[in-house]
Amino acid sequence: MAKRGQHVVPTAGGWSVRKAGSSKATSTHATQTEAIEAAVKIARIQQTERYIHGRDGRIRERSSYGKDSFSPKG
Q: Which residues sit opposite 32 in a β-bridge?
């Protein structure tokens, strides 16, 4: 996880939110949807990126919550 921001990653018991470069989870959730919601809240506060990884560990989606003009409205 070299990209800065919040990463939603699969774990044995569900899904976790991890800060880029950290081995410890910020939070753990039963569903990917719950983990994504938590990651979005953090990314908005920190004005950074949110990455969603698939079960294979590869990044499948990315959103920016920074100050750029292309950041998502939702």
A: none
Nearest of 46, 1, 39, 7 to residue 21 by alpha carbon: 1
1 located within any domain: no
Rounded CA gap, 74 and 65, in Å? 10
Could you read off the pLDDT of 53-67 as tens digits, one per residue?
999 999 999 999 977
Residue 37's domain spans which residues?
6-63
**Residue 68 gets which letter from DSSP?**
S
Give the pTM. Answer: 0.83
Residue 30 within any structural domain of the chain = yes
In a domain, 36, yes or no: yes
Rounded Cα distance between 74 and 55, Å, is 25
